[in-house]
Amino acid sequence: MFRPLAPAALLLALLTGSAAATEAPPGPLCPAPGTAAEKAIAKHVAAAHVAVPPFADLPTAPALAPERRGSIRRVELPAGEKLVALTFDLCETENEVAGYDGEIVDELRRRHVATTFFVGGHWAATHPRRFAELAADPLFEIGNHTWTHANLRTVDDGELARQILAPEAAFRAALAGGPQCPGISPAAAKRSTLFRFPFGACDARSLGAVAGAGMAAIQWDVSTGDPSPLTGAADIVADTLRGVRPGSIVLAHANGRGFHTGAALPRLIDALTARGYRFVTVGELLARGRPVITDTCFDAHPGDTDRHDRWSAGRRPSRPPLPVAAVGLRGADAPPIAPPARRTAEPTP
Ligand SMILES: [Zn+2]
Fold first, then answer.
1. Which burial class, exposed, middle or buried, applies to 175 when counting CB atoms under 10 A from its CB (0-12, 13-18, 19+)?
2. 304 Cβ partners below 8 Å, 6+ apart?
3. Distance from the CA of 5 to the center of ligand 1, in angstroms?
4. What is the pTM of this model?
């Protein structure tokens, strides 16, 4: 029932704006639930043609701490701490508008599961409203996933800078334009501190460039294999449970490339919770332990993402990729057991 404010309270509300803050209903579309149509990936459509935002005038980024340089696969936690970081990539290549998998995002919100999204700059440019919603949500954390999902082992120096920095400008533009969610303003946009290499492929040069831009390279120790349509929901749950351990970073997709991820997610959340795990963002996971770092990036075994060089090297004139044969493991990470053959780290665009 509507009750009029007493005159003194009304005056106070007018002065402070508290009436609006307490009585106005939350924005009905902020965040809006996902729709099935949004999950579809559209190739070679006009909406995919977005300009690269200028990135020369970005605010400077604080230097990356030396102990976080390299490829972070998981985090070694104090004994007894059962934390896990679910991560979802929102990749998009230059000729497509990838999807937004609202089934996943809505479930994470419903269950209050802290999550990190690695967002492509191109995806943010074609989904500014969804980007703003994710960035506004204190449950979620945003990391940089390059401009158009390039293989950073095979690009030249100019393209390397563009792939790393253009997303930062795209994120700011997405926050500045279009409908705004409470708490979001472009002035609040900060440089990303987390980065994920597409295809799980990096080398010394690209690792150095990402570190120079102030970002820690966050890869994974558990892949759901969700970009493969052959990986069903039960497979995603079983494979993840088999691979996960305290401090794990789990790779999945929320851009329409996770074929059965949405169906698997409620079961996965239940199963991990039943095993005593608590969900945290990658940032919180890093704050709670010691990152396990390797000198290069890979999916399950050192060198297993090199195959992506074959097609991407032919697309762009660039220097040959650096050899990764001599891989030094600096952390306590042992190469994991070979995954089932159906798994793929990332789809080939
Ligand atoms: Zn990706």
1. buried
2. 298, 345
3. 52
4. 0.82
Q: Where are the beta strands (DSSP E) in the chain?
A: 42-43, 71-76, 83-90, 96-97, 115-119, 140-144, 194-195, 216-218, 222-223, 249-253, 278-279, 290-294
Task: List the structure tokens of 338.
Answer: 């070979």
29-76 pLDDT, tens digit per residue, is 578 899 999 999 999 999 999 999 999 999 999 989 999 999 999 999
Q: How far is CA 119 from CA 13, 28, 133, 317, in A?
A: 40, 25, 13, 26
Query: What are 242's two structure tokens?
Result: 């088999």
| Residues 165-212 pLDDT 10s | 999 999 999 988 755 677 777 666 789 999 999 999 999 999 999 999
Encoded tokens for 45: 């459509």
The answer to whether the beta carbons of residues 84 and 277 sit under 8 Å apart is yes
Distance 198 CA to ligand 1 centre (A): 5
CATH numbers and ranges of domains, the chain = 63-315 (3.20.20.370)
| Angle between helical axes of 128-136 and 157-176 (0-180°, round to 10) | 80
**Beta bridge mates, 248:** 74
Give the closest residue to 88 by CA, choosing from 295, 272, 204, 262.
Answer: 262
Q: Please give the distance, rounded to the nearest whole angstrom, from the Cα atom of residue 10 to the centre of ligand 1.
A: 52
